[in-house]
Each structure stands twice: as C-alpha cells, then as structure tokens.
Amino acid sequence: MIRSAVIMAGGLGSRMRRSDETATLEASQVAAADAGVKGMIPIKRPFLDYVISALADAGITEVLLVIGPGHDAVRQYFTVDAPPRRVRLRFAVQPAPIGTANAVTVAADALGEAPFLVLNADNYYPVDAYRALAAHDSAGVVAFERDALVRDGNIDAERVRAFAVLDIGNDGMLRGIIEKPGDAFDLTSAAAAWVGMNLWAVTPAIVDACRRVPQSARGEFELPEAVGLALRAGVPVRAICMRAPVLDLSRRSDIAGVVDRLSSLDPHP
Question: Which end of the chain is more exposed for a tag (fewer CB within 10 A), N or C?
Fold first, then answer.
C-alpha cells in the first residue's frame, strides 16, 4: 500500500489572482487570493487542511508539500501555527513553476524510490479515490466520469475542456491521454466519458518519464504528457473509474461554492 502523498502547491495561482467583481469574498479570502496561494484560501481553516485530512482518512501517513520559493505563509502555518497531527508533513521547494512533471521530480528527489500519490493543491478529491489509488504499489490514475463532475461538483461543462480525456481499455488499464482537448474533441461522446483531474499514483518508471518529457506547447513539463511517454514505452498504468464529484478551487468565483460544500466538515489533518 502507498503511504506517501505529494501535493503540488508550487504554482503561481494566476487564475486565482485575477480580479472578479462577481465573487463576494471575505477580507481573508481576498488576501489569500491576491497572493495566489490557493491552498491557503480559508474555509473555516485553510483549504489544504481539508485536503490533508482526507488523505489521512485514506491511510496516508506522510505528505510532501511542493511549494514555491516565496510560499513562506504555507510553511509558517503547517510548521508553527497548526502542524498536522495525523501525518508527517515535509516540504520541497520547486525553484520555478515550470510544470507538474517537474514538481514530481522535485518530490522524488526528496522521497526516494517508493511509489507515492500525486495531487493538485486546489482540488478536493473523495477519500475513496485516495484509498483505491493507494491500495497497490503500482502506477495508476483516478478517472472521473465527466457527467458526474458536472452534475455533482462545482465544475461546469466548459471547464472540462481544460482537463485530460483518458482512454481506458476494457481491462481497466490506461491506453492513452488527450491533454486539454479544447474544441478539437467532442466532449459529449462516449470516448470522452472519463477525464483526469491530476490524481496519480507515481512509480520510479513514471518519475523517469517526468525527467525525460519535453516541454509542452505551453512551455511546461507536464505530468500527463510524461505518463503518455511512459505508456508508449510499455509502462502499465491502471485506471480507477469513479462517478464522484471533485471540488475545484482555481478561481475566485469557485470560493463561495467550495466554502458551502466544505464548511460542515471538521478537518483533522
């Protein structure tokens, strides 16, 4: 069973920094949004407390936060103000926000050879997704049903165009990834039923692909493209299909809905 998880929190938060006159926010939420540190957006407690608590509920015992050089507030909160009690928390610094594959290599340098989970810092995933993904020491991805994301979460149909479409075989193995399909793909088709939300189980073979993957068209080193590289080299990647919502906290307009969904929870990270 996988016991370690990596939370990718080193991005600039560019979308969260953008002003949005339609979003009604408290002063503390505005301050966190202006800083672009999405994981510190306050619900009752910072958003990352809810994420880490869910990981602990799933049996994860070690969490590595990959942060940027200027994310001192994150380090201060989790080491001094409110250290987690159910997980061992460590930090790794991603020198520049050059993509999720680079974040994985930074994490692997700190964690070593054992497999680990990888997830976004601005998504709240179901505990069952972590539990299923961590059950085996092999590469894997959680595939979320597109319709369930739109119906039950806070993600609209247009936003799904920014997510990777996953091609899954009848044997439950990942066959391919269409990264950010946009208008070039019919997202109402059966072929687009399952999408990736950057929740992975990473093994040394995937880390090796992250070290070798070229820059994407966006100028970043991206984890889905690295997984595609590994697939073409014959690395098996299992796909866990789930009909469940994911909460996305990437824009100011997301904050009120996420607060409404999570405010009844009492996190114990």
Answer: N
